[in-house]
Here is the input.
Amino acid sequence: MNLSSSEIRRLLTTSDPTAVDALMEEAERVRDEVYGRRVFMRGLIEVSNHCRNNCLYCGIRRDADCRRYRLSPEQIMDCCRVGHELGFRTFVLQGGEDAWFTDERVCQLVRGIKEAYPDSAVTLSLGERDYDSYARLREAGADRYLLRHETANRVHYGRLHPAEMSFDHRMQCLRDLRRLGYQVGAGFMVGSPYQTLDTLMEDLRFIADFRPEMVGIGPFIPAAGTPFEQEPAGSVELTLRLLAIIRLLHPQVLLPATTALGTLHPTGRERAIAAGANVVMPNLSPQDTRALYSIYNNKLATGSEAAESVADLRLRMQAIGMEMPVERGDFKGKS
Ligand code: SAM
Here is the structure.
């Protein structure tokens, strides 16, 4: 759908509830046309909270005073086994940029998962690496890679990250991943400090041009002990409008109802689905490490955010007329 910039600005700022309702309905209609009334599930395994980076917003940044953990390959394989039994056919290995996860170790893990579960997709979200590293992981069988661009505005990027981190490198990583044939996930936080309507418009333009196969957006939530701990959380309403607009700009996109949204609103996930989202990512990490992956305050990892409650989640989805099939849930369309 061709939404003009002025139309998008109007949709992001209007206080007319009829216009917002119409936006949500159209986003659902477009999602249903491409994917049907189906929500794909991914099992999220938070492999490590060690991180060499110092992003100003993140609760597991290098300088954060948090208890660190790292899952062993055996623990990760165990999570996949449990997940596969629960019906997950995508495993997302996400973590801080932890030097322990060398190419060799990650390749071995990816191969192990693909061998044990050839019907499943492996998604990595391990931050910025170089081209050759991404190439090795892809060669080992990784299907997808999530790396939010965080903001498409260079100056804004510089205010969210320390000087040692580079906007150009992050964008280069996304291009490298695309070139290597990964299904690529970009995305950003809604309401991050210094974000403006103009920077959001740049994010949307970037998404419309780059056309990532997945887009992860969720509200910024302050994290204790970070430079942004006193900053206000992002808006649930604005996040929902952005989800709907992204669905209209890029109908085939895989769009998760993120945990951050569920954390800020008890029915955040359902509302995201009603705004055109079609992916949920319950937490498959071992229960005793979930609280340690504290990227922001009060992060949900229980109830329907927990993989072991997938039956519950399925019922919640059925209640809004959505099925949750047991399948990989690949991108539908040309990248
Ligand atoms: N290290 C990997 C990377 O950089 O892509 C993956 C882990 S990182 C913690 C995953 C995402 O968490 C980031 O891309 C960021 O958008 C999100 N995040 C971090 N801190 C957050 C916060 N305070 N509120 C909301 N989202 C946050």
